[in-house]
Write a structure and sequence with these properties.
266 residues; alpha/beta; Dihydrodipicolinate Reductase, domain 2; 2 domains; 6-stranded parallel β-sheet; 10 helices; binds nicotinamide-adenine-dinucleotide
Length: 266
């Protein structure tokens, strides 16, 4: 399967180039960056530290996608929506790991997914997706007797807070407890804000240095505490998950899928 990568010079872009080169069934055929990026015209392999590939970084996604079956996009919601528009017009599949979509932007993604198959997941790691499953089970077993708090840590360049993964963790727990995440999520405590409610799910964020990504969900009861944690040591497992999603998309009908679909966890 022929793969193009958008945002090829980014933190995830370079790891995605390595992951696609390592995946037996995938062939890298194109790489793009934003217009004006200093590495336009350079060899994508050299930029990623993967050796010369003869694939030059372009700023023309439509021309790049002519030679590709699927696009891997780890950029930002507004960019992803433009990329989906191009891919839907050309009938090309999309795997996107971008995070920070508003409900309105997510609805737009769903529209494009009526035309082409799309995998959209805020976290492509197998371990995090296993955590989603464990969180659902833990919440069902522990019920309303435990206070739930989600804490996430990321590097100081991350643009969205809380992370898409933390939000998904909060949603998974809320769904399992029969609560509406948007109503019970509490992102901010300051001053005399009163006692914690039984229903709320605290969402706390730490930013600093080069932390790749850490998430812990606390279930805090009287006299005991359960913590379900995931720590990412490098970006490679996100990239390998995206490569796996490309392979899984082969032959799929249009629709919006996530990593739980890819990993058969539903
Ligand atoms: P980054 O800023 O290092 O990389 C983004 C790249 O996209 C940059 O090189 C930028 O120039 C490029 N870009 C911006 N606009 C563009 C355009 N119009 N056309 C082409 N390229 C464009 O960011 P990053 O750390 O690699 O993260 C990218 C995204 O991936 C973020 O949304 C982040 O939250 C998400 N992410 C998801 C996962 C996951 O598993 N789903 C894991 C890590 C990061």
């Amino acid at each position: 399967m022929k793969v193009a990568i958008v945002g090829a010079a980014g933190r995830m872009g370079s790891r995605l180039i390595h992951a696609v080169l390592e995946a037996e069934e995938l062939e890298l055929t194109g790489a793009t960056e934003r217009p004006g990026h200093p590495q336009i015209g350079m060899d994508a392999g050299l930029v990623a530290g993967a050796g010369e590939l003869g694939i030059l970084i372009s700023d023309d996604l439509a021309a790049t996608m002519v030679n590709a079956d699927v696009l891997i996009d780890f950029t930002f919601p507004d960019v992803t929506l433009k990329n989906l528009h191009v891919c839907a017009e050309l009938g090309k599949r999309v795997v996107s790991g971008s995070t920070g979509f508003t409900p309105e932007q997510r609805a737009e993604v769903e529209k494009y997914a009526e035309e082409v198959p799309v995998v959209l997941a805020p976290n492509m790691s197998v371990g995090v997706n296993a955590c989603f499953k464990l969180l659902k089970e833990a919440a069902k077993i522990l019920g309303d007797g435990f206070d739930v708090e989600v804490v996430e840590l990321h590097h100081n360049k991350k643009k969205d807070s809380p992370s898409g993964t933390a939000v998904r963790m909060g949603e998974v727990v809320a769904e399992a407890l029969g609560r509406d995440y948007n109503r019970v999520a509490n992102y901010h405590r300051e001053g005399l804000c009163g006692e914690r409610t039984k229903e709320e799910i605290g969402m706390q964020t730490v930013r600093g240095g080069d932390i790749v990504g850490e998430h812990t969900v606390y279930f805090i009861g009287m006299g005991e505490r359960i913590e379900i944690s995931h720590r990412a040591m490098s970006r490679d497992m996100f990239a390998r998950g995206a490569a796996r999603a490309c392979q899984w998309l082969n032959g799929k009908e249009p629709g919006l899928y996530d990593m739980q679909d890819v990993l058969g966890l539903k």
